[in-house]
Amino acid sequence: QALWLSGRQQEALAALDRLHAREPEQARWWLYRGRYLLSLGQTIAARDAFVKAQQARQASLDYLEQVGAIAGDAEANLAAGDVSAAEQALAQMQQRAPGAFGTLFLKARVALARRDYPAATADLQRALVERPGMSLARLLLGASLLHQGLLEQADVELSQLLAGDPENVDARNLLASVYVARNDIEGARRILAAAPAGAASHPATGWMMGSLMLRAGQSAEAIGMLEASVALDPDNADLRLDLVRAYLAAGQPEKARQL
Fold this sequence. Notes:
mainly alpha
């Protein structure tokens, strides 16, 4: 854990390999591996690790760790887009820890993945009553309200989140999306332009601003913003597609073809 927290991820994983070799039936090592791999975005390998943690000798995990293995499995499945498997993990959570906050929050996230926005909204509102300072719950609530077209409510939730955390890129982009849904493109641009320096340099902020410029017919300006964002996040296929659209709108089909 010390290696991981100090940013030495590969050394931490190598240390886990040595622990596995010494105690192959110890479920705790699988649990840690799942957490580490999930944070690295290796969702399939993380999911396998969480399953092995649950299948290993359960006496080696305490109650909270057993619940954590189930929750980690659900998180990995959601990240991998396997909603059915996440629902199975949720069912286990509801059996093992029916009144836990984590179970309620997971239920809301599964509802979001199913696009059952009214159910997700109700669960997230309950979660925020219990933990009003939980930024992720408020962010997801804003997204759920936006999907339902409840723009004023989404504005309230996301504005409250941004007031306490102006560096929150996701909240700022979602709030800009609320303005776009109102057909207030200039309002959306003002929201993005007000981002602090750290958030303004994030590729997602540049992507959103570039998309707004493209929508407003300002393809030359959009290209500059989108090219900068692609340079920061070159593996984002949706971002690259927006840049292709900007090239085509600006009459640069060769660049679009190359991209």
